[in-house]
Every structure is written in structure tokens, then in C-alpha cells.
């Protein structure tokens, strides 16, 4: 996702897109960010926390587990169709938002299990 809008165009992480249409792109980028957050919220609502004993200790740990199979084709198709209902742009932007949200949640879970993240939901807030 792009970090900020520069005077010459939209500044992305390592690339700069030179164009004269920065103001026209902003609604698309904001819609994409909002779609990522909607997917994250949907995935987060399908998490339940399971108590698991830490090996060799007298401690318990809460680990996130999905209530439904979020990796199934049916689930992803339903998610895609729900996002496309009010979508004004090309469908590949929805596919990108879904892929980005899955990646964010996968990274969050990995870091949570290592103890580097809290138990709150991840959110895409760049732009």
C-alpha cells in the first residue's frame, strides 16, 4: 500500500508512480484500504481463542483458531462476492485486498505466537 501522496504522484514503498492524476487515484487507494480492513474484520470475527498449556510450565496461553475454514474456495468466493457488491473499480482490486488481508493476518498470527503482538485485531492504516 502506498505511504503518502507526493507532489509528483503517489509515493509507494520503493517505487514512485509519476503521473498527473494523484487526486483521481486517491479514492481508489482509500477504497482498497477500506476493503482490506473489511476483510480483516471478517476474518477476525471468525477467530475463537483456545486455551493451550505451555509445555514444561504451569502457564496457559490463548491461541487464535478459525471457527470456519477461511482458506476454502467457497469461503473466499463468498467473501469476494460480498466485497464486489458495492465496488466501483476493477474486480482485481478486490482480489488484491483479500490477498493483502490474508497476508497481514498471517503475519500478525506468527508474531502473536512469538509474543511480539498483542491480542487486538490487526488493521491496515497506511495512506
Protein described:
It is a single chain. The protein is of the alpha+beta class and 127 residues long. The protein has a domain at 27-113. It contains three helices and five strands, in the order βββαββαα. The protein has helices at 22-45, 73-84, 91-113; strands at 4-6, 9-11, 16-18, 47-53, 60-66. Helix 1 crosses helix 3 and helix 2 (73-84) crosses helix 3 (91-113).
Query: pLDDT below 50 for ≥5 consecutive residues: which ranges?
Result: none
Oligomer: single chain
Strand segment count: 5
| Secondary-structure-derived class | alpha+beta
Averaged pLDDT: 85
Principal-axes geometry comes out as: elongated
Give the % helix: 40-55%
- Count of helix runs: 3
Distance between the termini: 7 Å
Order of strands side by side in the largest beta sheet? 1-2-3
Name the helix and strand elements from N-terminus to C-terminus, one letter apiece: EEEHEEHH
Amino acid at each position: 500500500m502506498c505511504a503518502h501522496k507526493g507532489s509528483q504522484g503517489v509515493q509507494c514503498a520503493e517505487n514512485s508512480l509519476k503521473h498527473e492524476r494523484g487526486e483521481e487515484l486517491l479514492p481508489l487507494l482509500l477504497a482498497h484500504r477500506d476493503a482490506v480492513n473489511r476483510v480483516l474484520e471478517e476474518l477476525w470475527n471468525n477467530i475463537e481463542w483456545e486455551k493451550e498449556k505451555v509445555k514444561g510450565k504451569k502457564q496457559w496461553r490463548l491461541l487464535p483458531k478459525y471457527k470456519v475454514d477461511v482458506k476454502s474456495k467457497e469461503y473466499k468466493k463468498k467473501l469476494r462476492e460480498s466485497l464486489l457488491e458495492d465496488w466501483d473499480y476493477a474486480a482485481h482490486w478486490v482480489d488484491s485486498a483479500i490477498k493483502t488481508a490474508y497476508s497481514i493476518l498471517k503475519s500478525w498470527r506468527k508474531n502473536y505466537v512469538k509474543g511480539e503482538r498483542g491480542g487486538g485485531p490487526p488493521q491496515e492504516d497506511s495512506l
